[in-house]
Write a structure and sequence with these properties.
This protein has 166 residues and is an alpha+beta fold. The protein contains 3 helices and 8 strands, in the order ββββαββββαα. Strands 1, 2, 3 and 4 form a 4-stranded antiparallel beta sheet that branches. Helix 1 runs antiparallel to helix 2, helix 1 packs parallel to helix 3 and helix 2 packs antiparallel against helix 3. The longest helix is centred in the last third of the chain and has 21 residues. It is globular, with a radius of gyration of 15 Å.
Length: 166
């Protein structure tokens, strides 16, 4: 299993439309493989909101698995909290079939920190374009909760909270 799993977003690709959700580039590199593919364009704010909720759930449980889908295509990422300090990622092509195309892992705290930073950049871009909706509100609220959880556990550690650490 490779340890080079990370999320990529690109605020310069964010497009907002009247009466529609914001789209933009969002993909993961899992074990050296871009998933679903490099430059994947999807409903970026909605998906980041799902990721924020998933990361909150992972930070609040000792060991659990969450599945975060993409909106376009039949793709998802399964995330397993294998320890307080490590997440395991499984790229799934075909949610129903569960065909895994890549696996990888990442230190939990740096992954979450990077996620928060990138999410704030996407929200800032939406605001600069004069776009704000319930999706942006939901993501901003989830980010606040996630940041609170990280502060409760304390800075300078790769671990994230779990019931055993409280």
């Amino acid at each position: 299993m490779n340890s080079d799993t990370f999320l990529t977003t690109d605020p310069s690709t964010v497009k907002t439309r009247p009466n529609g959700a914001a789209t933009g580039v969002l993909f993961l590199t899992i074990g050296g493989v871009a998933f679903p593919t490099e430059g994947w364009d999807d409903f970026v704010v909605t998906i980041l909101g799902w990721w924020a909720q998933a990361l909150l759930r992972l930070s609040d449980n000792d060991r659990c698995t969450v599945t975060v889908p993409f909106m376009e295509g039949d793709y998802a990422v399964k995330v397993l909290k294998t320890s307080a300090a490590t997440f395991e990622f499984r790229a799934v092509n075909g949610i129903r079939s569960g065909f895994e195309t890549a696996t990888g892992e990442a230190a939990a705290r740096p992954f979450i920190d990077s996620f928060i930073l990138q999410s704030h950049r996407i929200l800032r871009e939406c605001k600069q374009q004069g776009w704000w909706s319930a999706n942006e509100d939901a993501l901003a609220s989830s980010l606040e909760a996630l940041e609170y959880e990280l502060k409760r556990f304390g800075p300078g550690t790769d671990q994230v909270a779990s019931s055993a650490n409280r």
